[in-house]
Amino acid sequence: MIALEHVTRSYQTPRGRIDALADVSLAIDKGRFVVVCGPSGSGKTTLLMTIAAMLRPTAGTVRIHDADLYAMSIRRRARYRAANIGFVFQMFHLIPYLNVAENVRLGGSLLPAARKKHRADELIEQLGLSSRRTHLPAELSAGEKQRAAVARALLSDPDIILADEPTGNLDPANETAVLTRLSKFHRKGGTVIIATHGPAASPFADQTLQMANGRLLE
Amino acid sequence: MITPTLIFKEIRHRLMNFLLAVLAVVTAVTLYIGFYTASLAAERETARLMLSMGYNLRIIAADADMDRFLLTGVPDATMPQEYLQQLADAGHISYNHLMADLQQEIPLGDMTVLLTGLAPEVCPPGKKTPPITFQVAPGQAYIGHRIAQTLGINEGQTLDVRGTPLKVVRTLAESGAVDDIRLHCHIADAQAILNLPGRISQIQAVDCLCFETSADPVQVLRTEIGRILPRARVLQVKSIADARTRQRQMVRNLFAVIMPFIVLACGVWIAVLAVTNVRDRRQEIGILRALGYHSPTIATLFLGKAALTGLIGAALGFAAGTLLALRFGPGVFKITARTIITPQWPLLGWILIIAPLLAAVASFIPAMIAVAYDPAVTLREE
C-alpha cells in the first residue's frame, strides 16, 4: 500500500512560491496499475518523484508498506529505493558511456553480481535488445533507449515501477512494447504508476488519477 | 563493477576533458617544480655570485690607534710600502685592485688639508682592469673643492707644499665630505713632503678572495694576510658585506613571497577543474542516486577519477618541470647549474601525494553537495 497524506511540495522562485503538489492525499493498493493524467505542469512528475523517495515533500508523509520514506536516513532511503522501486524517466537517463548491458546492470545495485548478470541478460532479451547489448545510448533509437531504461528499472525485481511519461518520445510500436512489458510486471503482482498526458496507457490501467495545478481532482 | 569500470569508461568517453584536466595539473605542477628549482638555484647562484665579488678590505698598520682611525678614517701609523708588493705577489689570494696611500693632515696656507699620496694601483698579473681611483703623476696634484676655494687656487697653478712644488692639474668638484680638503699627489711626493720614505698609511684591497674554501672567508683572509703582512691589521669594509647580505636576503624573500602564490594558484587551478568536472556530471550523480547508490559509492567514483587525474598530472608535471629546469636552468644559472639544477626527488613524493589529494578534495566537496540533494532535484537541474 502506498499512502500519501497531505503532501505538499513547494518551490521558491523569484516570483514567489509555487506548489507543485498541494495537499495531496491518496492511497494506492499493492498490485494496482495506476495512470496519473494531467497537462504539463500539473504535478505528475513531482508526485512520482515523491513516491519514488527521490524528492522530499515540503509537508506531509509518504508511506510505502507502512515505511515512512522521508523519516529514513539518506542512506537507508537509497537502499530502500534500490530494493523496492524501479523508475523509468521520460528522458531515459542512461549513462552515456556505458553500453546497454552495463546500463541495465547498473539497476541492481543490491543484487549479487552473478544474479544481476543473469537477470540483465534475461531482460535484455525480453525487451528485444539482444542485438544492441554492446551499443552505447548514442547509438540507440529512442525506443531502444526507453526499453533499456525499463530493463534497468526491472532488474532488481522491485515491488513498484514508477514511470514518468515513459512513452512520450516513442513511436506507436515502441510505445506498445514498453507498456506491454510494464503490464506484464503488473500481472505478476507489481504495482505500476505511470504519469502521462496521452491516452495510450489508459487501457492497461485499473485506476486513473487526474491532476491539475498540483492537486488531485476527484 | 561500478567503481573502476565507471571511472575508466567515463575517462574514455570524455577523453579530451580528461586530457585537458591532466594537462592543467601537468601545467600547474610543471610551474611549481620549475619555480621551486629556479628558486633554489637563484638563491645559491646569488650567494655564489656575491661570494665571487670578493671582499673589500682596508689594511692598516697594526700599531695604528684604532679609536682615532675609526673616528677620522686616517691611520696615525704607517707601514712599509713593500707590503703592497708582498700582498700582490701572494699566489693564494685573489683581488681586483690593490691601492696604497699615505695620508696625513698638514697645514697649508690658512687651513689644514689631508695630504694623500697615491701609489699606482696594482692589478692582478695578466689582468688589465681600469683603475678605480686617481692616478696622479709625480709633481702633480689634484685638490679638493674647499682647498681651491679657500686658497684661491686654480688649475695650472703650482703649490708649494713644505718646499715641494706640486702643479695643480685638477680641482675636484664639491663632494661634501673629506675629499673637499684632500690634496692628492703621487706617493713619492707625499713621502718626501712628510719625510716618510718607503712608508704607506693603508692598502685598500677590492674584491679580495682567498682560494681556500671556508665557511668564513673573511676570517681566512685575515689569517692569510696576517701571515704575509705580520705588522698589519685587516678590516672589512662593512657596507659591502651588508649589501651582500641584503642581496641574498632579497632573493630569499622574493621567492618566499612568490612561492606561496604559485602553490595557491596551482592549487586553485586544479580545484576549479575538479569542481567543473563534478558540475558537468551532476546528471550522473542524480541517476546513480535514483538507482539507489549511496554517497560513498558515488564519492569513490569522483574521488577515484580526481585522484587518477592528479596522479598522472603530478608525475608528468614533475618530469616536465624537471626537464625544463635541466634544459634552461644552466643557461640562466651558469655557476651553480651543475650542482643545483638537479631533479628534486624528495619533492616527487610530496607532489604525488598533494596533487591527487587536492584534486580529490576539490571534487569531494561539490560531489557531496550534489549527493546531499534529492536525486530529483539534481536531475531537474539538468
Average residue-wise pLDDT of chain B:
82
Query: Number of helical segments of chain B?
Result: 13
- Class inferred from helices and paired strands of chain B: alpha+beta
- N→C terminal distance of chain A: 20 Å
Oligomeric state of shown chains: heterodimer
Characterise this structure:
The complex is a heterodimer of chains A (218) and B (382). Chain A is 31% helix and 28% strand. Chain A contains 6 helices and 10 strands. In chain A, the strands form 2 sheets. In chain A, strands 6-7-8-3-9-10 form a 6-stranded mixed beta sheet, with helices on both faces. A 4-stranded antiparallel beta sheet of chain A has the order 2-1-4-5. In chain A, a hairpin with a 2-residue loop joins strand 4 and strand 5 (67-68). In chain A, helix 5 (142-154) packs parallel to helix 6 (172-187). In chain B, the strands form 2 sheets. In chain B, strands 1, 3, 4, 5, 6, 7, 8, 9, 11 and 12 form a 10-stranded mixed beta sheet that branches. With 382 residues, chain B is of the alpha+beta class. The model of chain B has no long low-confidence stretch (mean pLDDT 82). Chain B has 13 helices and 12 strands. Chain B is rod-shaped, with a radius of gyration of 36 Å. In chain B, strand 4 (97-108) and strand 5 form a beta hairpin. Chain A binds chain B through residues 46, 49, 52, 54-56, 74-75, 78-83, 87, 89, 93-98, 102, 105-107, 109-110, 113, 152, 156, and chain B through 1-2, 5-6, 9-10, 12-14, 283-284, 286-295, 297, 372, 374-377, 379.
A few lines on this structure:
Chain A contains six helices and ten strands, in the order βββαββαβαααβαβββ. Chain A has helices spanning 44-51, 74-84, 100-105, 113-126, 142-154, 172-187, and strands at residues 2-13, 16-28, 33-37, 59-64, 67-68, 85-88, 160-164, 191-196, 207-212, 215-217.
Essential attributes:
heterodimer; A: 218 residues; alpha/beta; six-stranded mixed sheet; four-stranded antiparallel sheet; 6 helices; globular; B: 382 residues; alpha+beta; two-stranded antiparallel sheet; 13 helices; 58% helix; 18% strand
